[in-house]
């Protein structure tokens, strides 16, 4: 038992170190990148919101990845610069949007399909991206003096969050244009979810799917 | 189906464990580097070590994530951002109410996060993949026009207004780069995002700052490269 306890103690100590951060970000990036692999090949599993995944979808369907890559690159750069300065890396912008959407879009636009060859190449690619990001963050942490800040992330976040709010009305309009049943379903679903204090987006889609499923 | 379950389990265990451990490190930042989000930190603190509060907070996001997974196969950012940290915290706090020994301990959060993440991701992805084809067809027929409008012109407008409202320098950089981006890539959002980044950094640190100069250099090179590869310059050949 004594032996086991010292192992856990060592683990506790290790997980508070700088090197542990790099291991953790590698794992997180690998999982998120592999999630995008699943989304591309199996249709589910991307770790991001519908409106951001839609940009990648746009690229997959139309072959134009500029919107996804450019948008996500902005967040990735901002968060990597900000993360080490405040001691807290935002995983939403850096990993979920940057590694999960932006870099896959960049690779696919360059015609580099190797990361998406199978599940394990995706995991390994993600881990390597995590290693690079982790190393850059640790490097910035060491060299940048205190008091230098990268601005604008709060403005970007505010606009990003505002975007999500527009989706519910747009979905109701789209459902109404597609078919009368999906339209009624979307209206009812959104109204019920709004009343419950849940995201209207989910209610609108589920409502459209349920009534559409019954009557179409 | 088996493929989805195995992949989801691997992804959920690795991702959930690492992110929960990163979240536990947030309580020790900025002395050590952590990962998560300021809002997550605030929300974890707001639940005040009460397992039921942590669980129900996560549950609210669980329902919206499940809806999003079923509709579009996107699990939403909340799975890793909010549900995994809060449910891991809830699981640990049931046994031991002291947050210093549970929520703030990266090792314990890692183990709890791996379990929560594994179960959660498998559940959401299976749920999303077992829905009948007819329903997913309806979902995509409704979602495709909505997200197309969102990408263009709704998002450019939102980001553009946010840039203008954030001050003269972000407004100027955002407008110019947004316009160039619309010309070169067809969508203004990437340019506006980078414009906000440059404008705000310049406002806070001045144009003499290395960070600002490097940012401008990266953006200029990026746009020239994109323009070149997309054949933008060919349009000037008469």
Q: What do these coordinates show?
A:
The complex is a heterodimer of chains A (216) and B (238). Chain A is mainly α and 216 residues long. Chain A folds into two domains: 2-151, no CATH class; 166-215, no CATH class. In chain A, 81% of the residues lie in helices and 1% in strands. Chain A is elongated. Chain B has nine helices and one strand. Chain B has two domains: 2-131; 150-236, no CATH class. Chain B has 238 residues and is an all-alpha fold. Chains A and B meet through helix 1, helix 2, helix 3, helix 4 and strand 1 of A and helix 1, strand 1, helix 3, helix 4 and helix 5 of B.
- Give the helix proportion of chain A (percent range): over 70%
Low-confidence stretches of chain B: none
Please tell me the overall pLDDT of chain A: 87
Order of helical and strand elements of chain B: HEHHHHHHHH
Largest sheet of chain B, if any? Answer: none
Question: How many beta-strand runs of chain A?
Answer: 1
User: What's the shape of chain A?
Assistant: elongated
Oligomeric status: heterodimer
Number of domains of chain A: 2
Spell out the helices and strands of chain A N to C: HHHHEHHHHH
Poorly predicted runs of chain A are none
Summary tags:
heterodimer, A: 216 residues, mainly alpha, 2 domains, 9 helices, B: mainly alpha, 78% helix
Which secondary structure elements does this structure contain, and how are they paired or packed?
The complex is a heterodimer of chains A (216) and B (238).
Chain A: H1 2-14, H2 18-42, H3 50-62, H4 66-86, E1 88-90, H5 91-109, H6 119-143, H7 153-178, H8 180-196, H9 200-215
Chain B: H1 2-25, E1 34-36, H2 38-46, H3 51-72, H4 78-95, H5 106-130, H6 133-165, H7 168-185, H8 189-205, H9 210-229
Helix pairs in contact in B: 1-4, 1-5, 3-4, 3-5, 4-5, 6-7, 6-8, 7-8, 8-9
Concise structural overview:
With 216 residues, chain A is mainly alpha-helical. Chain A contains nine helices and one strand, in the order H-H-H-H-E-H-H-H-H-H. The longest helix of chain A is centred in the last third of the chain and has 26 residues, at 153-178.
